[in-house]
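re: ur question from the group chat, yeah i did fold both. here u go
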Amino acid sequence: MTTHLKGQKMFLAGEWVNSDRSIEVRNPQDNTIIDLVPAATAEEMVNCVEEAIEGAKIAAAMPVHQRMKVINDAADYIQQHSGKFAWTIASESSKTIREATKEVGRAIQTLRISAEEARRINGETIPFDQSPGSENRIGYFYRFPIGIIGAITPFNDPLNLVAHKIGPAIASGNAIIVKPATVTPLSALLLAEAFSLAGLPAKVLSVITGHGSEIGDALVTHPAVRMITFTGGLEVGEEISRKAGLKKISMELGSNSPVIVLEDADLEDAVESSVSGAFWAAGQNCLSVQRIYIQDSIFGAFKTQFVERTNSYIVGDKQSELTDMGPLITEKEAIRVEKLVSEAIGKGAVVLAGGKRSGAFYSPTVLTDVPENCLIAKEEIFGPVVLLYSVADLDEAIVLSNSVNYGLQAGIFTKNIDLAHKAIAKLDVGGIMINDSSDYRIDAMPFGGVKNSGLGREGIKFSIQEMTEPKVVCFKLSSL
């Protein structure tokens, strides 16, 4: 497929518009320019929010069957043009074409589930006569849309994570403004095109491209925006929470995910799942396997198989079906990972595989003997690096797993149901995968974490709960 620098427009309140300035979208593999997108100004973002005020009224008035049809028609469009969507993801992001194709499939599923959940935004009857003196009262509560939602999305899943914001927002009758990652805006614009062609009324959806430092505050601080949903780094999340004011905030802020492998585990399965979990999307994944705690008796065997499988990974051209892993999103990010590894090596860590950088590429890397005082042991790596540790038993593994200030997901490999339940009870995480790595999720489950891993939960049904509010209705009757 040939790339043409035609220059994209952003989607402002249902209209495709340009801005006076543009941003170059580059392929991280070779730094070539793929396309240009507008660099919106703060004034344009404010204008977008003002248009969305009317859009929120339009969205709230859409009957459920219309919301469902629009979302399903958008999903149909993606399905019919899946090759174009996958190529775009693999061009602007770090993902290989195989990874991108899977993301397209997940985005379609995300929208299908959103359409289904639109019919299940239910309330409940309330027995008011539980309170003495209220025998002549009956009523219920129902959920109503919150209004305007501001969504800020990351580069690592440039289509599906945008779908996770837009799908539930439209399903629940809200207007939504998306500010996609500056380095990967093209997939979000394609999704806006899908919704536009699906007949979504104007002003309900906007996708505004630009630099977060210039337009972020205008979105986050505007009083008409009633909720901010953000997926990204901890520092930015903390800054948003300080600036947002009195509005709902939902955040997924990353992790330092542990996996525990006990001596009764299926070793081959544990190795394969954990290697995939560590190096999917070049490790730029909030669920990425970072720390693996292996019981002493099988540590040697696990290490040998894990390193062998890591060394077999094919790193290279993202558009090749044979490639297992592509580059990081920028050379700057690859240099950051390189420095983290170098610090660990300087403090005594041993490199078992990888540890080499070429431009934005960083080879799949396995470390052992990593001291606890290294940044790479405590913080989110967001790169293709995994740390192996030997532990005496599950108790030690749990203590070490909980020793960082993140808690998104964890994995444990064991055939012992008692030990599995102990891990479930004791691990401080939002999700635990049994006989799977931490890097597993489906789009319908509640997704989120504890500690510095975020606030609230995503997953379509649960996002809809965040994007709506309950309204209580009570009838006082003269007689029953």
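okk and heres the other one u asked abt
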Amino acid sequence: MKPANRPLPAADDPAAPDRRLVLLADHNDEERRLLARLLRRGGYDVVEARDGAEALALCQELSPRLVLSDWDMPNMTGVEFCRAFRTMQRSNHGYFVILTRTVAAAEITAALEAGADDFLAKPIVPLKLLARLSAGERIIRVEEELRASNRQLREALAKLSDTQAVIEHDLKEARKLQQGLVRERSGRFGRVEISLLLRPAGHVGGDLVGFFPIGDDRIGIYALDVSGHGVTAALLTAQLSVHLSGSSDQNVALRGAQSGQDAAGPAALAHFFNNMMLEEMNTDSYFTMIYGELNHRTGQLRMVQAGHPHPVLQRSDGTIQHLGRGGMPIGVMDEPIFDEIEVTLNPGDRLLIASDGITEAQTPNGRQLGNEGLEAVMRTNAFLHGHSFLESMAWSVSEYCRGERQDDMSAVLLEYRAESLLLRLD
């Protein structure tokens, strides 16, 4: 071993200019010294080795980036040295050039298969040697840049993963809070039974369903669907839930009752929300809604439809009717037109208010369930009631989508029970 003419960089010093360190392995002393002088004049630090074993030990100690090795060396050929060099644990690639007196295709193939990056034919032409090493340095720089970029990417991904875990936890908690907006999932008022379904597509969603009593004989029911998905829709849903809560001082529909007046009617409530969206909220969001008042003693139901899917009335004899003409969504137009619906429920009838996450559910090839598909689901599950009906419907929709549901799914089920059935349930 012959040391270079200036101090060698430490192998574990990342700031050291080890790209300029060349390990030169050649058993021919005269040729090795000649090449070493040439390399030093080219600005390289040089470490010399007389055979492959000595060169391999120096690689372990110094981890050079550039290696020049003669093909014919005692004890360990240049190809064997290269192969052993590639099996070493290194923090960098290392550019390996084999020097040979022949350029036979078989030898070139063997050198490349052993892991050599390049080869030079002896006698060495100085300009070719320096040009090859310069190319090797460029490759080393690119490799360092890629390694640094990969390290930064891994660090960024680790931070992103930590952030994602926090967001995931927060969204799970937000889902619990949003599910808590629906305080009661079912209710019974005289002959009328109400059942609710709320199934977000993600952690949180923009659907909301619910009901509240209005006096002794009436019930307020609502179903709404905020445009978009995720946190923005969920926040607007939470705000709307405050205006539709059971507390009379917060519930918009019940405020009139505080002054001895009647509760706000369905159409008035829709217009109130439309003005609130346009005048008080700086947002591009809008929502669809059905709000209704049901007299549970007489079965009379008044509803307003604001862009929400049509309520589906299933009579006791199995006939199905889609109610309403649609109406405009809330928060889009200054002077919207909402559809007002009046219908009377008879014993044995049921009314389903479903979100478009049900009617617009799609198969993988893009075919929607639609109104006809919903009718088929209702007929198939006609013998079921309450939450059993809603859960079976939700399962049918998920099966129709092959589990790839893209939208929130919500529903309100009103059932006007026959007297005989109520007696059996009691």
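fwiw on the second one: Residues 52 and 76 are 5 Å apart (CA to CA). The mean pLDDT is 84. idk if thats what u expected
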